[in-house]
């Protein structure tokens, strides 16, 4: 039989309220622990931001530590619609003139028109890549590809699909108009050495007549097969008057560091200029300054105390963060072994109040006019690590901070450990409170039961006394 229990019904005490208040006292340390946990999480998040920004500063410095960070170039064409140009970092500054007499072309052939859906006969087609000289064909180094044409079923569309699936170095399509349909075949690559020949083994016994599969053969001088609508041709151009030829309209190895795209034949010389891209260099320097300032702002905000709001930054007074800020600012004031520029301030990168870097445009312009000396300020090496160029120096500094045993990484690990301990402490408080609640309820319920028994005995005694008095 179920028992209905209501703590305190016998004694008249609010046992549940009493126990709840006592348990609340046991849980009192949780308030401080939860506040501490929030603070630790904020610190960890801030350190995560600092770590990311240190990494970004290291990346920006690393870019300036390498020659490629100082060798960006740009190329311009006086007629980009005819001659386009792209250039790699480090390409020498130069100026050339170029004329295009002929664009590279791919060989194209077309069959005679047949009624749409006509079966073209049976046998096989063999496609070879190579070079035509008059009516003579010299096969290239590739392997000829043979395609089987099935009995009575293969129309031009079927044959075109088989050619495209064969990876023979050509592409095929079917052209339809009022006269019927034609098979069009074209080399995938331009240039004289990428021409093609098509021979057939026609099951009708004649491989060169105007019937059956022979109609799709191609060789120069064969009037019964496909006709050539475009010969394979090399590009022909002159660079500063020197003739050049290319199988492709993209010249990627002709001039050091340059890729030239031929799009049109020209009627006048095209001027191509390759110059140092000083704006890209300025952008690299600015990216370095911006990365430092972003990190400096985060450190300043994390360490400050706001008098107006009476609130402290999440890392105020933290020795690790204070040390990092001081080391970072000291690094920006340090000296490298390069000459004539040995300090960042020499080229206009100046440390201002609050640790912010600013670029003096006048000084920077002057330094840009002495690009090799400016480059040395960031790229120079030295036996003394503290005297290396600022690119190397700050790159190494940043890497050291975020390495597994670095200052920032160690601080992050310490915060994670503190958060874990805090969580365990909260668990212990909750466990102790739960045990106390169970114990207190048991004790008060036992007391309530005892009071109930006494009340029952008292009522019985009173009743007996009343009965004795009546007798």
Number of helices: 9
Radius of gyration: 44 Å
The strand line-up of the biggest sheet is 1-16-3-12-13
Number of strands: 20
> Residue-averaged pLDDT, rounded?
88
Report, as a whole number of angstroms, the end-to-end distance. Answer: 40 Å
- Multimeric organization: single chain
| Major sheet description | 5 strands, antiparallel
**Helix share bin:** 40-55%
Poorly predicted regions: none
**Which structural class matches the secondary elements?**
alpha+beta
- In percent, how much strand structure appears in the residues? 15-25%
Pattern of helices and strands: HHEEEEEEEHEEEEEEEEEHEEHEEHHHH
* Overall 3D form: flat
InterPro entries: Flagellin_hook_IN_motif, FliD, FliD_C, FliD_N
Family: Belongs to the FliD family.
Pfam families: Flagellin_IN, FliD_C, FliD_N
Domain Flagellar hook-associated protein 2 N-terminal: 11-107
Description:
It is found in: Secreted; Bacterial flagellum. Pfam families: Flagellin_IN (PF07196), FliD_C (PF07195), FliD_N (PF02465). This is Flagellar hook-associated protein 2. The chain has helices at 15-26, 29-65, 156-165, 278-303, 319-332, 361-368, 371-379, 390-402, 407-470, and strands at residues 73-77, 83-87, 94-102, 108-110, 123-133, 136-139, 145-149, 170-177, 180-187, 195-202, 227-230, 235-239, 242-246, 250-251, 258-262, 270-276, 305-306, 311-312, 349-351, 357-359. With 471 residues, it is an alpha+beta fold. A five-stranded antiparallel beta sheet has the order 1-16-3-12-13, with no helix packed on it. The chain has a four-stranded antiparallel beta sheet with strand order 8-9-4-11, covered by helices on one side. A hairpin with a 6-residue loop joins β14 and β15. The longest helix is centred in the last third of the chain and has 64 residues, at 407-470. The mean pLDDT is 88.
């Amino acid at each position: 039989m179920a028992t209905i229990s209501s703590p305190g019904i016998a004694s008249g005490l609010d046992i549940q309220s009493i126990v709840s208040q006592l348990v609340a006292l046991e849980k009192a340390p949780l308030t401080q622990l939860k506040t501490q946990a929030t603070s630790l999480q904020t610190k960890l998040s801030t350190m995560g931001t600092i770590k990311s920004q240190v990494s970004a500063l290291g990346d920006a410095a690393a870019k300036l530590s390498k020659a490629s960070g100082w060798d960006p170039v740009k190329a311009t064409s006086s007629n980009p619609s005819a001659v386009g140009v792209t250039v790699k970092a480090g390409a020498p500054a130069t100026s050339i003139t170029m004329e295009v007499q002929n664009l590279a072309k791919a060989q194209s052939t077309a069959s005679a028109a047949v009624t749409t859906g006509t079966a073209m006969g049976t046998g096989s087609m063999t496609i070879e890549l190579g070079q035509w000289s008059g009516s003579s064909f010299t096969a290239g180094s590739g392997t000829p590809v043979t395609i089987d044409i099935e009995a009575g079923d293969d129309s031009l569309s079927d044959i075109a699909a088989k050619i495209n699936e064969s990876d023979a170095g050509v592409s095929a399509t079917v052209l339809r108009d009022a006269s019927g349909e034609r098979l069009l075949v074209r080399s995938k690559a331009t240039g004289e050495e990428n021409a093609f020949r098509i021979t057939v083994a026609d099951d009708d016994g004649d491989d060169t007549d105007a019937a059956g599969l022979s109609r799709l053969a191609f060789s120069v001088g064969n009037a019964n097969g496909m006709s050539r609508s475009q010969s394979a041709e090399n590009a022909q151009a002159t660079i500063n008057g020197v003739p050049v030829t290319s199988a492709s309209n993209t010249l990627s190895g002709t001039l050091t560091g340059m890729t030239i795209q031929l799009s049109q034949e020209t009627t006048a010389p095209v001027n191509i200029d390759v110059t140092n891209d000083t704006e890209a260099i300025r952008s690299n320097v600015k990216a370095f300054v911006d990365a430092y300032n972003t990190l400096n702002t985060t450190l300043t905000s994390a360490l400050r105390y706001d008098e107006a709001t009476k609130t402290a930054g999440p890392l105020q007074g933290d020795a690790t963060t204070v040390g990092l800020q001081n080391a970072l600012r000291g690094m920006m004031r340090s000296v490298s072994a390069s000459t004539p520029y040995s300090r960042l301030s020499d080229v206009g990168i100046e440390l201002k109040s609050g640790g912010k870097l600013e670029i003096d445009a006048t000084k920077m312009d002057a330094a840009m006019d002495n690009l090799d000396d400016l480059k040395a300020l960031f790229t120079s090496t030295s036996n003394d690590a503290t005297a290396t160029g600022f690119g190397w120096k700050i790159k190494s500094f940043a890497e050291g901070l975020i390495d597994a045993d670095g200052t920032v990484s160690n601080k992050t690990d310490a915060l994670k450990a503190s958060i874990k301990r805090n969580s365990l402490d909260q668990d212990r408080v909750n466990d102790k409170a739960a045990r106390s609640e169970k114990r207190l309820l048991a004790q008060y319920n036992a007391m309530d039961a005892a009071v109930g028994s006494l009340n029952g005995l008292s009522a019985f005694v009173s009743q007996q006394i009343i009965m004795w008095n009546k007798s």
